[in-house]
Amino acid sequence: MTVTVQIRYVIDPFKRDAFERYAQAWSGIIPRCGGDLLGYFMPHEGTNNIAWALISCDNLAAYEAYRAQLRVDKESLANFAFAQRERFILSEERTFLRPVAAQFN
Q1: With bands split at pLDDT 50, 70 and 90, how would you rate the model's confidence at 1?
Q2: Structural domains present in the chain
Q3: Exposure of 99 by Cβ count < 10 A (0-12 exposed, 13-18 middle, 19+ buried)?
Q4: Helical spans, DSSP H, in 16-101
């Protein structure tokens, strides 16, 4: 069963550019490490400090293998270090979702 991880980020609204750089860096890293990046989403209007990411894997075992790969990938480690250094992510929460229905345009 496919599992999608929704990551909810609370970000520093004064460092949105740094978060956007961080999010864009994952576009090459996540697929290389085994995840299917559905997207990173930034605030546009309304709440200015919440962002999201959606990443799918074939199952929880594949997700764990993907996470293990992230921990040894040089670009992944550099991106995590960038986030730690710049402190634009104030907190994050992970929710594991399963598909129920989908509509694609």
Answers
A1: confident
A2: 3-96 (3.30.70.100)
A3: exposed
A4: 16-33, 60-70, 74-86
